[in-house]
Amino acid sequence: MKYLLFSFIALCGISMNITAQAPVAEADRLVGVWEPSNGKARVKIEKVGSKYYGKIVWLKEPNDPATSLPKVDKNNPDAALRTTPLKGYRLLKDFVYKGAGEWDSGTIYDPENGNTYNCVIKMTDNNTLDIRGFIGIEAFGRTDVWKRLDLVKR
Amino acid sequence: MKRPFLLVLIALLGIGCGSADQVVEYTASDAEFRFEGPLFSGPQSAQAVLAVDIQRILDSLGKTREDIDRVELVGADLNADSLAFANLNSLTLQFTGDQSPMVQAGVLNPVPQGMSAAFTPATEADLGAVFREGICYALLDADIAADADTSFSIFGTFHFKIHLR
C-alpha cells in the first residue's frame, strides 16, 4: 500500500514537471534556422536568457558588388557601427513568448534602409512563420512569410 | 538693450548648469567569453554575465537605480588567452538584460592581430535600462575565419559612464 502511494506521488511529480515545462518547449519551437520569402538570407533564431534573437547566418550574396568585400551594415544610423558584418548580424531582437504560437515585444532591423521596426512573430505551422513588422500600430505593417530550413537527412 | 540680453544669457547658463547630470565612471573587468570548440567558420557567439555592482556608489551619492538616466560605454578592452584573434574576422559586442532590450555597443572589423584589442564604442548606444535592471548579459558575436578544433576565451574589461539625474 505504502509502495503504491509513493508510486502515485512520484507519478504526480513527473506529470507536474512535464506540465511546467510544456510552455517552455512550446516557446522554443521558434529556435532554428529560417529563410525569409526573398531567399536572400537565412536567419538562426536562438534563446538568450528568456528572450529570442535571430541572426543572419547565410547570405545569398555575401559580398558587396561595389567593393567585393563582405557586406557590412553600411546604413546603420550610428556611424560607429557601420563596419558591423551583415553575416552574424542580429536583426531580430528581444522576442518574448506570449502563448498560442505568438512572440511579441521584439524588433526587426532592415539592413537595406537602416530602420528598426516593432515586430510580432506568429507560427502558423511548425515550419512557417508570419513575421510582421510595423511602426506604432500593428495593423499598419507588412508581413513576410519565413520557412524553416531543415537539414537534409542522409 | 545689452544688459537684459546679458541677464537672460546668465539665467540660461544657470539653468543649464543646474540641470547638468552627475557622471560616475564604472569599470567591469574580467568578463570571460568562452568559445567552445570545435569551432566552425562563420558566426559564433559567447556570453558573459556582468553583475553591475554599483549599489555602493549610488548609496554614497544618495541615489538609487531609478536615478540612472543613461549609461554609455566609453571603452572596451579585450584580451585573449591564445592567438585566438588570428582566426577572427570580426567581433560585435552587445548588452542585454532579462527585461531590457539588447543594445549593440561596439564592433571590431577587422580584428587586429595580437592578443589584445580595443573596441570603438557605439556613439548612440544607451545602456541605462540594463544598468537600472542590475543584471547585464554581455554577448560577443564572432565571425570565425576558419574551422578550428580548439576552444578559447576572450576576457573583456568594460568602462562605462553613468549619467545620474
Can you describe this structure?
The complex is a heterodimer of chains A (154) and B (165). With 154 residues, chain A is α+β, with helices and mostly antiparallel strands. Chain A has a single domain, classed as Lipocalin. Chain A has 1 helix and 8 strands. An 8-stranded antiparallel β-barrel of chain A has the order 1-2-3-4-5-6-7-8. In chain A, 25% of the residues are buried. The mean pLDDT of chain A is 88. Chain B is of the alpha+beta class and 165 residues long. Chain B has one domain (21-164): Jelly Rolls (Sandwich), CATH 2.60.120. Chain B has 3 helices and 8 strands, in the order H-E-E-H-E-E-E-E-H-E-E. Chain B has helices at residues 2-18, 55-60, 128-133, and strands spanning 22-35, 42-51, 68-80, 88-96, 103-108, 116-121, 135-144, 152-164. The radius of gyration of chain B is 20 Å and the shape is elongated. Chain B starts with a helix and ends with a strand. In chain B, 33% of the residues are buried. Residues 1-19 of chain B have low confidence and may be disordered. Classes of the chains: A alpha+beta (154), B alpha+beta (165). The A-B interface holds A 44, 46, 48-51, 53, 55-57, 70, 72, 77-81, 83-85, 87-90, 93-94, 107 and B 42-43, 45, 47, 89-90, 92, 94, 96-98, 101-102, 104, 106-107, 109, 120-125, 137, 139, 141-143.
- Helix % of chain A is 10-25%
Uncertain parts of chain A: none
Tell me the number of helical segments of chain A per DSSP (H or I, 4 or more residues long): 1
**Shape field of chain A:** globular
